[in-house]
Amino acid sequence: MSQKKSPKDSCVETSYIVLPSHTNALGGVFGGTVMSWIDMVGAICAQRHSNRICVTASIDALHFIHPLELGDTATLFARIVYTGRTSMMISVDVYAENPIRRIKAQCVKAYLTFVALGEDRKPTPVPELLLTTESEKQAYADAKERRKALLAQSRS
Amino acid sequence: MSQKKSPKDSCVETSYIVLPSHTNALGGVFGGTVMSWIDMVGAICAQRHSNRICVTASIDALHFIHPLELGDTATLFARIVYTGRTSMMISVDVYAENPIRRIKAQCVKAYLTFVALGEDRKPTPVPELLLTTESEKQAYADAKERRKALLAQSRS
Amino acid sequence: MSQKKSPKDSCVETSYIVLPSHTNALGGVFGGTVMSWIDMVGAICAQRHSNRICVTASIDALHFIHPLELGDTATLFARIVYTGRTSMMISVDVYAENPIRRIKAQCVKAYLTFVALGEDRKPTPVPELLLTTESEKQAYADAKERRKALLAQSRS
Amino acid sequence: MSQKKSPKDSCVETSYIVLPSHTNALGGVFGGTVMSWIDMVGAICAQRHSNRICVTASIDALHFIHPLELGDTATLFARIVYTGRTSMMISVDVYAENPIRRIKAQCVKAYLTFVALGEDRKPTPVPELLLTTESEKQAYADAKERRKALLAQSRS
Amino acid sequence: MSQKKSPKDSCVETSYIVLPSHTNALGGVFGGTVMSWIDMVGAICAQRHSNRICVTASIDALHFIHPLELGDTATLFARIVYTGRTSMMISVDVYAENPIRRIKAQCVKAYLTFVALGEDRKPTPVPELLLTTESEKQAYADAKERRKALLAQSRS
Amino acid sequence: MSQKKSPKDSCVETSYIVLPSHTNALGGVFGGTVMSWIDMVGAICAQRHSNRICVTASIDALHFIHPLELGDTATLFARIVYTGRTSMMISVDVYAENPIRRIKAQCVKAYLTFVALGEDRKPTPVPELLLTTESEKQAYADAKERRKALLAQSRS
Predict the structure, then answer these.
(1) Helix (H, G, I), strand (E, B) or coil at E7
(2) Does chain A have fewer CB atoms within 10 Å around its N or its C terminus?
């Protein structure tokens, strides 16, 4: 696992149209549906970085910022922001786009941690991140801070 | 909204059998499926406390502790731990139980925040909590601390 | 299988919000969706009583009493009312609750029979019921009567 | 509603391949899935007879006779056997067919009652049955008997 | 595989009610839902003809002719029109029927090709068609022409 | 609608992990599931080009080239290749990627036609294509040829 990998190599983009089967009683998207989409796109990103089967370890934060309505196109972007020895923190951003008015708005901001599994289904090391741009370095520093805060909180 | 309400009045329990349609490629439960279950049971709890339609504002933490396998019974317990003016923090615990061996294990621990909506679909005040037991008071204090840490983190 | 078990030890409660994906063209719940929910909660109850994998043998009766509408919370209660040598009759009651008006109404009353399977996937004996309350004894007597009527009917 | 209608005019046949998304933890079909299929095919039959939107009133009996396995073709036949003033009793038979061995076996036998709704969503009269064959008359007599037994049972 | 089989022996009919879970944001059926239904009914037809597990090789044409609305009954008819050595071309017609107005209209016309798999999961020969009626012979000639045009197109 | 638009402005990429709920009895992806994914990604592409709600008019061709197995990542690419007055031909390519071996293979190649709907739900004009690269011009010429062949075929 000596080879570092760029976050660019594992970015994932994915889009859905919000159908009635995805909605809640108010006609907006059902929270659980978006969480499923976020979990899947995050897992694909983690698997691309590690070349391993990955499972969700935690959702570190997930904020609904803006509603996602019936008929909107939801676009999700996942990228890796931090690696532990066997874990990866993935950031997922969800944007809504009305097909006619084309107004884009960020709907959800989420951070999830995935763990890579070896053939024995036990956690296995993942490649470190090769950070080149300022934005990648900033995302890494933010994630490290976020992780420290989470650990402090769980210890308290 | 002068009337306080006990957390006991809005507790929700719900159970699922893990079917093949809920699983990932490894035969364990798909993360997104459990998140959907957690979101729904949390929303029911928030709606019972507020007598309002509630929408998910955030997942404040969600940890997968133990695997949940095909054929297991998943039991979810949701209870309200903290209220803001228009928001409610709900704790959700998920337990797995093998139908034959009857071994129970906690699989997921989660905290979600829901917002109550009025008829105008804008946030509307919710009843405060009437805390009577030590465990309710402790859960409230922990949630307040957790909320403070989350706010500090999002400000930084 | 000498040990009797109380019906209290296998009661199951479970709740759903009626989402658009659960509805029919009229905006009420689709009958087949509720039947799926009833089947799952009944199977969990039978598995808790028998500590075995259980499969549905029959629906002995299932009555839709009151509509269950989009946005309602559906709460299902399953309890064991009768045991044969390898079979268990489970009663399932479904209640609807409007999240705002809080009016509760019983929507469905159902009786299902499940069979416990051994490791060879053949029917295997289940614990007898330890009946202590008057209501448990009444439910048992009613179920016995119901079963006798069903047998008579299937013989004719 | 003076015009009688033959049961032949509302027969419905429908087929599914049992996919992993339809199965339980044992690899057979999940009971709730088959119940959904039965409810839908029964509703189509009732709607064809009445030219009305119909909703499920009850499952009068539903017996699992033979297992339905992953990969089998499930074929359902629905036909109307009895009419009340606003209700229709539908018989549904489900057969399993292994695609290679072609062995057919009856898996489920069910009787459901549907109610026809008028534009005001209240029960509305349905056409009587025009019975011509011996088998139709026998099915009608059996259903009448079954209905009498069910009524006696619910009164007791 | 010397025995020829009539197309009549593998015809499949299947019906669905269009539920909200099947619809798009406009309230009509979601295209992908109908494609799933068509694929399944086509596979059943191919499996009945070949007594083999069959997988989809191609959709040769699929035309949406008329909308299929929420609450409509969709009825699909699949029949085999052409056989290659290991492949079968299946025609699927989808009709919509409003339950009250009883107006029927053809919604979709599709041609799919399935391949029969042997126990080694490799393509395996299928019975030839025994064509007796004029309409069967015409469908066969049309399919042969269609296939030739498709091959010419894919070669160009 | 005088403004031409580049095909680059409406490209859509989307990824799924193949879960058990997406598979057939052989453990590969169920054909109908992939068709649903293709239909959705194609519709998003058409809506991005036209800034209109779009509905599927036809699948002009869809070929399964390579199997897509449980646990694979399926990645779909949709791009517009041709425009009529109110219709758009979209090409969709589906690739499978094993998360560990990272071998990529094209699984499906499809062409679909979508129609843009105005506020009156009637077909409405779409922007013409601004073709700049050789590959865009080639895709357009191929699509024109394909369309001509399809029209000839449907007239015959």
Answers:
(1) helix
(2) C
Instruction: Sort residue C139 into left (φ over 0), alpha (ψ -120 to 50) or beta.
Output: alpha
Could you tell me if E77 and E11 are in contact, meaning their C-beta atoms sit under 8 angstroms apart? yes
Rg (CA), chain F: 16
Residue C85 token pair = 């040598």
User: B62 and B108 in contact (C-beta within 8 Å)?
Assistant: yes
Buried b (16+ CB within 10 A) or exposed e, F5-26: bbbeebebbbbbbbbbbbbbbb
Q: What tens digit of pLDDT does each residue of C83-122 get? A: 999 999 999 999 999 999 888 899 999 999 999 999 999 9
What is the enclosing helix (H) or strand (E) of C57? Answer: strand C53-64
Q: Is the pLDDT of residue A75 over 60?
A: yes
D20/B21 CB distance under 8 A: yes
Per-residue pLDDT tens for E26-37?
A: 989 999 999 999
Asked if D93 and D108 count as a contact pair (C-beta separation under 8 A), the reply is: yes
Question: Which residues in chain D have Cβ-Cβ distances shorter than 8 Å to B19?
Answer: 23-25, 30
Q: Within a 13 Å sphere around the CA of F137, how many CA atoms are in the beta-carbon half?
A: 3
Domain count, chain A: 1
CA distance A123 to chain B (A): 13
Which residue segment(s) compose the domain that F93 sits in?
4-155
Contacts for D108 with CB less than 8 Å, ≥ 6 apart: D34, D38, D62, D63, D64, D65, D68, D92, D93, D94
pLDDT greater than 80 at residue A69: yes
ipTM at complex level:
0.94
- Subunits with 3+ Cβ pairs within 8 Å of D are B, C, E, F
Q: Can you tell me whether residue E56 is helix, strand or coil?
A: strand
Higher pLDDT, C19 or E153: C19
The Cβ-side half-sphere exposure at C111, using a 13 Å CA radius, reads: 20
* Helix-, strand-, coil-residue percentages of chain B, each rounded to 5: 30, 40, 30
- What is the C-alpha separation between C120 and C98, in angstroms, rounded? 45
Q: Is the dihedral of CA D17, D22, D25, D28 positive or negative?
A: negative
CATH of the domain at C99: 3.10.129.10
Q: What mean pLDDT do residues C62-68 have?
A: 95
A126-132 average pLDDT score: 96
Instruction: Give yes or no for a contact between C89 and C113, defined as CB atoms under 8 angstroms apart.
Output: yes
Residue of chain D with shortest Cα separation from F22? D21
For residue A36, which residues of chain B lie inside 8 Å, CB to CB?
30, 32-33, 35-36
Sheet strands side by side (includes C53-64): C12-17, C73-83, C87-97, C104-117, C53-64, D53-64, D104-117, D87-97, D73-83, D12-17
Q: Return d(Cα D33, Cα A149) in angstroms, integer.
A: 45
Q: A37 CB near a chain B CB, below 8 Å?
A: yes
Provide the strand spans (E) within chain D: 12-17, 53-64, 73-83, 87-97, 104-117
Residue B154 in this model has a pLDDT that exceeds 90: no
C-alpha to C-alpha distance for F118 and A56, rounded to whole angstroms: 43
d(CA F144, CA F146): 5
End-to-end CA distance of chain B: 34
Rounded to 5°, the CA angle E120-E121-E122 comes to 90
Q: Is B73 on the interface with C (CB under 8 A)?
A: yes
